Amino acid sequence: MHLPRPRGPISAALGTALRGSPHALPSSVLDHAQRPGGFALSDEDLQVSLWICYELSYRGFSDVDEDWETEPSLLAVRAALEKRMLASLRDLTSPPPRATNAPAALKAMIDADDGPGLALYLQRHATAGQFAEFVAHRSIYHLKEADPHSWAIPRISGRAKAALVEIQSDEYGAGRLERMHSELFRAMMRDLGLDDTYGAYLDQVPAVTLAVSNTMSLFGLHRAWTPALLGHLAVFEMTSSLPNRRYGNGLRRLGHGTGTTRFYDEHVEADAVHEQIAMHDLCGGYLEDHPEDTGKLLFGAACALAADNAMAEFLLQRWESGRSALHGVLETDVA
């Protein structure tokens, strides 16, 4: 994967610098990153810049020296962007509901969520082109599915660790390549005529889509935010089964068979089990040992809902106004 196209002064400066040997970034880059801005989740320059910084800790870029990952001046820029991101996430989320235990608090939070009905739209109304766009958006995360949450494994212990490993083992196909969820997603992309290359649609997705992935990476790459990462994962698992059933039904409505719908069908079954493990063993077990982290865990859960809702709202607004939800035309090899 190559560096994405710049979307503003920060990403332009990063793109220029990262193509050379690691060195101290000009102070102007940090100045731009620290400059107060608007809503961070829709800030194109901020989100693509943050995604670039984070990707250095995942698979990196073919045109970037690996030593950039730990360059102090780049980490300072990343920290400034994260500060703005966290401020917007706090503005976007409500105080967590009062509850006597973690499972009850998470369930209350999900029950109170009245986010956009994206899954229902895809099930009943989406055109083939809109569904392909949705899959292109989701590819930013699903092609590395489970990786951001796996950062928590070495940071927790006991019942919570066992629960997390159980969930992640399923995500990675229990050791079988063809059953890895990221591989199932790639197979679906190919069936839909999409490019299944990692990061293929990075330049076409908007800031709100990058923000979904960046929220996970922010929590995953900072040990202090481990509780938030666990809450984030719990919400992912607890809100997965019904939407994935609707996504699968939407593909069937459009004429696709079990080979194409397997990714979604697998999540309907797997996440019904993961929901209970995530609520009771992962989050419940963690907070039994770390009750002081309840606020952070529930904040992470709220952020999962908020970031996903922001992306869903963007897609629905674009489609309902007759526009594409991507930057540029989506090309597929399906007539």
Structure explained in plain terms:
63% of the residues lie in helices and 0% in strands. By secondary structure, the protein is mainly alpha-helical. It has 2 domains: 9-92, no CATH class; 102-320, Up-down Bundle (Heme Oxygenase, Chain A), CATH 1.20.910. It is globular. The mean pLDDT is 94.
Task: Characterize the largest beta sheet: strand count, sense, and whether it forms a barrel.
Answer: none
Per CATH, the class of the largest domain reads Mainly Alpha
The CATH architecture of the largest domain would be Up-down Bundle
**What's the SSE pattern?**
HHHHHHHHHHHHHHH
Q: Report the total helices.
A: 15
Structural category: mainly alpha
Q: Which spans of ≥5 residues are poorly predicted at pLDDT below 50?
A: none
Number of strands: 0
Might you state the CATH topology name of the largest domain?
Answer: Heme Oxygenase, Chain A
CATH superfamily of the largest domain: Heme oxygenase-like
The rounded distance between the terminal residues' Cα atoms is 27 Å
- Number of domain modules: 2
Helix coverage percent: 55-70%
What is Rg? 19 Å
Mean pLDDT: 94
**Shape descriptor:** globular
β-strand percent reads under 5%
Question: How does the SSE layout of this entry go?
Answer:
Layout: H1 9-18, H2 27-34, H3 44-55, H4 72-92, H5 102-112, H6 118-124, H7 128-142, H8 147-150, H9 158-171, H10 181-191, H11 207-220, H12 226-238, H13 241-253, H14 258-289, H15 294-320
